[in-house]
Structures are given as structure tokens and as C-alpha cells.
Amino acid sequence: MTELLAGWGTTAPTVAHVRTPKTAAEVAALLGDNYPRGLLPRGLGRAYGDAAQNAGGLVVRTSALDHIDVDESAATVTVGAGVSLDALLRVALPRGLFVPVTPGTRWVTCGGALACDVHGKNHHVDGSWSRHVSRFGLATPRGMLDDVLPGSPEFAATAGGMGLTGLITDMTMQLIRVPTGAIVVDTERTPDLDACMARMLDNDADYRYSVAWLDCLARGGKAGRGVLTRGNHAEVGDLPAGARRDPLHFAPTTRLTAPRGLPSGLLNRRAVTAFNAAYYHRAPAHATSVESFAGYFYPLDVMSHWNRMYGPRGFLQYQYAVPYGQEDVVHQTLRRLEAAGCPSYLAVFKRFGPQDGLLAFPLEGWTLALDIPAGAPGLARVLDGLDELVADAGGRVYLAKDSRLRPDLLPAMYPRLDEWRAIRDKLDPEATMRSDLSRRLGLA
Amino acid sequence: MKDALGGLQHVLILGGTSELALATLRELDLRPGARVVLAGRDPEACAAAAPPLPGVAVVTKRWDARDPGSGAALVDEIVAEGQDLDLVLAAAGILGDQEQAEKDATVAVEVLQTNLVGLVAVLLPLASALRDQGHGHVVVFSSVAGLRGRRSNYVYGASKAGLDAFAEGLSAALQGSGVTVTVVRPGFVTGRMTEGMPTPPMSSTPQAVGTAVATAIRRGSEVVYVPPSLKPVFGALRLLPRPLFRKVPG
To answer: Is B30:B6 a contact under the CB 8 Å cutoff?
Structure first.
């Protein structure tokens, strides 16, 4: 069965053979075969670029590896690689448990979260996904590893290894205990980027979660204005009286579905400028509120297939991290995109804490993520220029989001690339594990 | 691999000195690190014709459209090199002299071998390689001359008619494979091929063709007329009864 597969940005689809094994044994059998174009696991396809594509090869969907086994007393869970955060939270939250790290959508799988070593709004406090994983199973082309443990080379190469060391079959991880499913959110408007950074440095330590939205379309004195939302898990007493009886109620909703076949240009500069201005002014100058976890962590999940809003040409997300002291890169980014007339419709700005790993994306400093329509004229050149700034600043772009990086910048951005390759080559000497990302960047 | 913004990493030009293909190449905005293969009967001429592309590796390979065996050999060689092909520009072609061809059929045969047989012989194994890799784009340089047979150039027209039908069928055969086929139908293009000939209305330049083809590649268009106004004109001319069509000048 062949399928045309794309990433969430829908930009460069390719055709692959697709299989959906039901057990770890079936996975192992698939890995034992020989594929001229290699093999790659795929979760829910939420990587923006080509990380979960394998043109002409085999793509192994992990969706049937869906078992969830919670140990309530230890607050741990063992999950199949194909379990989505949505499915996990449905089981965990009513037991007073929550995922230790979550990206901005709950429609990612645990396998994908480990393979990309994803981060959340709490990276400055809790690090990335892999920090909370105590073991995982890995089907490699050389055989099954049932218990890959933190500290081992296999663990280091697989966390953030973009699915190129083998297929993660399951994992055991530590969850956190939460009294409610709500977040106490402090919201404040920040008039410009410097003010936003200053506020974050000032008292991010008071919050487990911290994220800023920036208005990239505001001009002149308003450029870089944003809304900073920071929060902590709510105690029962924080909830409105009516919600206290069932504080762990799981009730996220998907109210809208973007239809197929939307035209390009629906999200245009004028519309988004107006939306951003409204969003900025609707936010309080400074206020505290109680929000559901879904509203705080997953605002975009209320619309399924929201990527269709970008039309047939799709979009990309450009996310990078730069160390502290390189704030000018962020200023330059906003200025250059503005000067080139490339609108970014969604800009998310965060801080990262320290991070271990061979191909891990986070590094202590700042991270900026920008959603940009792929049809924006001159975008390729602008982003190439920004890549060079980022690399010179000791920063890097995020492989889980990447769809267009120039391969020659990869070693500068990922200085431990050769260490990673050495371990990978031992796990997969025939280079069976392959992806469009790895072909495009010469990664493996 | 092609990237999210249409950036290409590996391009093959069949007919490495073709003005139209090289004009297209200049418009592709290849980034440093990309690789271009110019395949033609005279690799030195291909190398000399290559435009300056900063940071792009340009290599030449011998391939002669008049020798159908050289097509399969070329494809084998490129596949063995191991880098996916993102784009193929099938541009080899000669105009031939219609009057001479009517006196000496070997002239006509050479036109057909170059423009049709040689390209078919290389495009079939290429299509198979692209299908195996699950992605790719083939641009076939046809001509409006292939849409109706004309007194003045029907040997050339026959070669392009054959190529055009082949490309349409190839496109159908590659549906669902991840491979896109674009057919380009220029009108009269001022340039080396038509040097010394009077310029008819609705003519274009290699530069205009290059720009139009690069846009079509980005968009994934199936059929491109250059200039675009030729589309309605030939839409009408295709319906014109023969006695009337024979009276159309050109």
C-alpha cells in the first residue's frame, strides 16, 4: 500500500509504502527485511517538515502500538510508541497524573516525542521529554533492545535521533502529580521584545510554564509587542466553586474542522494583522485567570486540520534556539522578516534551560518559532540568511520543524553530530533507517 | 530532496547545451551545495555553456540522443551515484531543415531520433528510477509545432507531437507515484535554433521560457504554453478544419 505523505506544513510530499504493525514482534519482523530505500517510523505526522517521510521506502505507522499501563502508586506509565498525548492524558488526568513535558499539541505520539526529544513551556524548569523517560524498547535493524536505559549510548542517540536509530516500540516514563486539570495563568502584555525578555528573566522562576506570543506584524514602535502567559498547575482551591467537585475532569474539545481545499491567501497579511492587534488588545495589561490545561497548552487543537488554513502551498515553521547574550539574533529576525515582507502569522517565544543530548535541539537561552506561509516571496533567501546568523551565534534550528535548512550548516548547529553518527552507525550499519529529512540534510 | 520552498538539490539536464534548459536552470535559484548534471553529446560544450552558479557543483556526462543505448547507461550511472534526482529537464532537440529532410530522409530520421526516440529511450528508465525513489519532477520540452502538422516544419512537428503524447502518457502512468510531469509548449523562440529566421508574432525568448518553466516547476503545473496567450490560440487552431488551417500563415 503506497501513500503520499507530507509533514504538518504540507509542503514537500513524497510517496512511500506504509505498514502498520500491531505488536513489537511484527515491528521486529519488518526491521529484519531488506528495503532498498530504507525504513522509518511515523507517528501522527505532526513534524512540520519531512522528518516523518521516507520517499520510495517503507514508513511504519506506530498507531497500533497503543497500550497504556499506568502505575498510579509510582506515578509512572508504560506506553506503546503510538500512544498520543491525547490518549495518555485521557487515562492519566483522572488519576491526578499529567505528562511531564508537552508540546503545543496533544496530537503527537510518545514515540515521536522521544525521537524528537520535544520540549514544552516548562523546559527552563523540567528539561525535555527524554529527561523523564526511564527506559524504552528499540527495534533496530540489528535486533530488539528491550530496555534502553538513560546514560547508555543507545539512549543518547535515540532521544532526538529523529527515528534514525531504530523504531521505538514502547517507553516507561515518570508522570507528574497534579491536583487539578487547570492552570493558574498570569497574563501580561509586553510592549516590545526587550520588555518581554526582561520580564521572563526577572521572574520566570516563579512559574513552571512560561511562553510569549509575539505580534510580528506590528510595525514601528509596536514591533515585537507580545503577550506573556505563565502558569502553574492549579490547586483545587483555585478553581471556581462549581468545578471543585471534579477537578480532574478531562474535557478538551475540538469545536472546528478546517475543510479540505481551502485556497492560498486565506491567511493574508491584512487579516492576520487585524487578528494580532485584536489579540494583543484583548489581553489584559496584567491579570491572573484559571484556564483548562487544554486551553493553555493546546489552543490550536480546537481546530482540527488547522494546517489547511494555509492553502495548497502550505507553510513552514522556522524554530531556532540561541544562547543568552545573542538576543540580537531575535531582533534581527523580526526586522529582516519585516523588511522582506515575509509575514509570520504565529510567533512563539520561550526560554530554554540546560539540555543534554547528541542531537537535542534545546540549548540554554532563547527559542523563537515562527509560522510562515511557504508562498511568501523571497522567503528562502531570508531564512538562509537567518540560518547563518543563528549558526554564528552558536544556535541551531529544530530538526522536528525543519523543512529547508542548507545541509552545510548542520555540523555547525549540531556540534555533536559525529558522535551521534558513530553510535547510529553501530546500531544500523547498513543505514536501513532513513527519512527524507536525513536525505535532504545528509544527516545519517 | 526538494525542500519546503521548492529548493532543489539535484538536477539533470538532458541536452546540456539547450538554451531553454539553461535559461530554466538560471531561474531555479539553486543554493550552494546543489548538484547539476549536464548530459549531452559533447560534454565540453555542455561545460562551456553552463551558467555561473555559485557553490553549485556542475558535472557533465556524455549522452547522445541518437544512440538509444546511451540513455539506459546514463540512468544507471546516475542512480549508482546514490543521490536522489529532484528534477529532470528533457530538452535535447534539433530543428532540422524541412526542405533538406524532404530530399534526404536521413535528415528527418535524425530529427526524430534526437527529439523523440532518444528522449523516450532515456525517459523510460528515468521514470522508473523516479518512481522507485517516490518523488521527482520531469519537464519535457515539447512545442506548439507538435499540435498541428504544418507545411513548413512537419518533420520537427512530428517529433514534438510524438514527444508530447509520450509525456502526457508518462504523466498518466506516474499518477500516485509522487513524480510530476510538466509539458512545456513554447511557440517560436528567438535563439540559436531559429537564428536567421523571421520572427513571427507571439514569439518568445529563452529567458521568457526559463522563467515560465521555473514557475511551473514551483507550482507543479502539468502543461505550460510560452507565451501563455498561445494556449487559447492553439485551442482554436486545433479545431480549425484542415483546408482553413493550411491557409494560416507561418
So the answer is: no
